[in-house]
Amino acid sequence: MRICLIAKNLDLRSGGVARVPLELKRGLEKRGHKVDIITSNIKGSVGYLAHITAGIPLHLMGKKYDIVHAITPMESLWVSKEKGVVTFLDFMMLNNWQDIDAGLDKNWKKGFGVGLFSFMASWASKFNKIVCISEETKQDLIRLYKVKEDKVKVIRLGINEDLGPQPKLRDGLTIGYLGQVDKRKRVDYLITAFLSTSLDATLLIGGEGSLRKQFVNRSPRIYLPGFIPENMLCIFYNSLDVFIFPSKVEGYGLPIVEAMACKKPVVVLEDAIIPKDLKERCILVPSLRGFFKDKERITNLKGEIDIEGNYKFAKEHSWEKCAQEYEEVYREMKDGR
User: Fold this and answer.
1) Integer CA distances (angstroms), 35 to 4, 17, 167, in order
2) Separation CA 243–CA 259 (nearest Å)
3) Which of 106, 148, 207, 311 is deepest in the core (most CB within 10 A)?
4) What are the DSSP calls for 189-252, one per residue?
5) pTM of this prediction?
6) Chain segment 67-111, per-residue pLDDT in tens
7) What is the mean pLDDT of residues 320-324?
8) Closest Cα to residue 4, out of 54, 55, 48, 59?
9) Helix axis angle, 135-145 relative to 107-124, nearest 10°?
């Protein structure tokens, strides 16, 4: 099949969504398909708006594909509802817009962003083939847009195959986080809570984002190395004793799964809005300040959860399996099923 994937961008520094088209392309090409990706090279909200309103139709003009797949509803406007596929990652822009730090720093920007997503999600909900990355997202789609359940398939995202436990190379107690360094992820709360205690430990924060410069030289107890490349993820996770994911709301939360694949205990806040099958495998705490005051508990967290069970769960997340399941959806679409 000749397949076209439409995405926002392919820059892994801007967030995990970019990994989806890259991994799908790799997996589908291994299976013998020809895959093109339409994306935008222009940064910022204005550039993205130009991409979804003009850039995508210009790229599609005159080209013939068996399948056109919009990686999110925002890229779906120019895709045929009868012959295209759309993926819903989450509904944060509708359900939790007030918690999102995505350049929507003014009320009018948030209003425009929420309105645009609502329109695009409504459009995409009419597609014949819809994929969601979690059962929660599927149920939100059904509830919000009255979509028939048999139109929607849940396909989990994957993680790198090389992720697994290795001997810890870093000395001393090390607590870590990986992801965007911004307000939605509540990294500012993580850092201030850590610094409010005298815990003898290092806080290792991987990733880029709007808050990194603010904290990069705050304390010798905190290390912010910036973007962690794919080939260094396993080393990063295995340098930790505990992984903390303080985010308020997530469509899924792949760093949690990646940490579990390396047999690390994962801590999230009780009010975190993340898929149930992930959250129930994490250690829930009401407050990070209180958590950081209890070193004895921190050093014995593995006794509170099923590390081996979490490892098996994490290893079920395979990009190869993800590509295979999407291929099945594409074939159904092509065959008119």
Assistant:
1) 6, 18, 38
2) 7
3) 207
4) HHHHHHHTS--SSEEEEE---TTHHHHTTS-TTEEEEE---GGGHHHHHTT-SEEE---SB-S-
5) 0.91
6) 999 999 999 999 988 889 999 999 887 776 565 654 445 554 566
7) 96
8) 59
9) 90
How many residues appear in the chain?
337
Provide the 8-state DSSP code for 73. Answer: G
Homologous superfamily in CATH for domain 2-158+318-334: Glycogen Phosphorylase B; (3.40.50.2000)
* Residues 231-282 pLDDT 10s: 999 999 999 999 999 998 888 999 999 999 999 999 999 999 999 999 999 9
pLDDT bracket for residue 337 (50, 70, 90): low
Q: Hey, do 2-158+318-334 and 174-315 end up sharing a CATH topology, with the first three levels equal?
A: yes
Contacts (Cβ under 8 Å, ≥6 apart) of 86:
69, 70, 72, 73, 76, 79, 124, 127, 129, 130, 131
Domain 174-315 CATH superfamily: Glycogen Phosphorylase B; (3.40.50.2000)
In angstroms, the CA 91 to CA 63 distance is 31
Residues 6+ apart with CB under 8 A from 286: 269, 270
Euclidean distance between CA atoms 265 and 256, whole angstroms: 9
Number of neighbouring beta carbons within 10 Å of residue 6: 29
> Residue 228: which of 243, 247, 250, 217 has the closest Cα?
243
Name the token pair of 290. 């209180």
What region does 179 belong to: left with phi over 0, alpha with psi -120 to 50, or beta? left
Give me the residue spans of the domains in the chain. Answer: 2-158+318-334, 174-315
**Per the structure block, which two tokens stand in for 55?**
């850039």
Quote the CA–CA distance of 179 and 266 in Å, as a whole number: 14
Q: Which two tokens stand for residue 84?
A: 């295209």
